[in-house]
Amino acid sequence: EIVMTQSPATLSVSPGERATLSCRASQSVSSNLAWYQQIPGQAPRLLIYGASTRATGVPATFSGSGSGTEFTLTISSLQSEDFAGYYCQQYTNWPLTFGGGTKVEIK
Amino acid sequence: EVQLLESGGGLVQPGGSLRLSCAASEFTFSTSAMTWVRQAPGKGLEWVASISATGGSTYYADSVKGRFTISRNNSKNTLNLQMHSLRVEDTAVYYCAKRGSGWFHGSWGQGTLVTVSS
């Protein structure tokens, strides 16, 4: 099983600032990496797939990078609606696995 | 816009059974692979099971293998999850999700809560 590790668990950021979230895989997942946003009480929303491709309707303030075992989600300028939980997921091998999540909170 | 609506959640005793359903609309269900993902209260996302578009291939997390069965009815645009021998640790919101061009998920239902408790 590929273990996905996200850091930090909680990130405190001021509105308008940049946020950088990390996701590490225990073995290479190539570019088969997705990022999701989850607002409390809501279903997850796909942000990024293929490590760096934005899903339909996702603003350009969100960008993904990386390949192999190291990945980054960057939110260039945090808006109020961006304070949420974020999860990475690998889809190279079964079982599909998610990282433990990063909570982005208002500083 | 893709619509996914889960139903069937509720309170069940340990060792009991429950059947979840997901009604799909506004896309061609019969050509879309599907997945169940769950989220325990206050915890992260956990993949549960996936099924190919035809239903010919199924995949399960070790934590549910042998207890849960994923299935689909393409004539009724419905995805199912039959759950047996439920445990307290199966308590979670269960989401159905539509696969994208790879095994990531671009569309999600609103979830249905399963509570396993005596």
What's the helix and strand layout?
The complex is a heterodimer of chains A (107) and B (118).
Chain A: E1 4-7, E2 10-13, E3 19-25, E4 33-38, E5 45-49, E6 53-54, E7 62-67, E8 70-75, E9 85-90, E10 97-98, E11 102-106
Parallel strand pairs in A: 2-11
Antiparallel strand pairs in A: 1-3, 3-8, 4-5, 4-9, 5-6, 7-8, 9-10, 9-11
Chain B: E1 3-7, E2 10-12, E3 18-25, E4 34-39, E5 45-51, E6 58-60, E7 68-73, E8 78-83, E9 92-99, E10 105-108, E11 112-116
Parallel strand pairs in B: 2-11
Antiparallel strand pairs in B: 1-3, 3-8, 4-5, 4-9, 5-6, 7-8, 9-10, 9-11
Largest sheet of chain A: 7 strands, mixed
Termini gap of chain B? 40 Å
Shape designation of chain A: globular
Q: Helix- and strand-based class of chain A? A: mainly beta
Rg over C-alpha atoms of chain B, rounded to the nearest angstrom: 13 Å
Shape of chain B: globular
Strand content of chain B: over 45%
Oligomer: heterodimer
Order of helices and strands of chain A: EEEEEEEEEEE
Report, as a whole number of angstroms, the end-to-end distance of chain A.
35 Å
